[in-house]
Amino acid sequence: MSFQVRMNVEGDTATLRLSGELDGRSAPELNQLVGEAVERRVGKLVLLLDELTYMSSAGVRCLVFAHQKLPSGSEITLVGTQPEVAETIRLTGFDRSIVMT
């Protein structure tokens, strides 16, 4: 399944809807949108993951990149995380740096 991501920014919140498979080939596209969100000085990043079926370590690196680039005190929230994707994030320990609902 191909990867797709769309971003919507309202106020200081950027919401990204991800679908498909996030891997080494698709990670640059997500990193680019995260960079655009940072340029717009958002304080909260919400990732809607209910349609994301797979996340490789490259996808986790995207989350780490976002965490590093957003201003201190910013929040990253993952919504609708599929069990397989959530397990990948938990295995890295990154679930302690974000909010997963």
TrEMBL record:
Matches recorded under PROSITE patterns: STAS
Top-level lineage group: Bacteria
Pfam families: STAS
STAS domain residues: 3-101
InterPro entries referenced in this protein's UniProt entry, alphabetically: Anti-sigma_ant, STAS_dom, STAS_dom_sf
Residues forming coiled coils: none
UniProt xrefs under PANTHER family: ANTI-SIGMA FACTOR ANTAGONIST, ANTI-SIGMA FACTOR ANTAGONIST TM_1081-RELATED-RELATED
Family indicated by similarity: Belongs to the anti-sigma-factor antagonist family.
Cross-referenced NCBIfam families: ant_ant_sig
Listed name of the protein: Anti-sigma factor antagonist
Provenance organism: Nonomuraea mangrovi
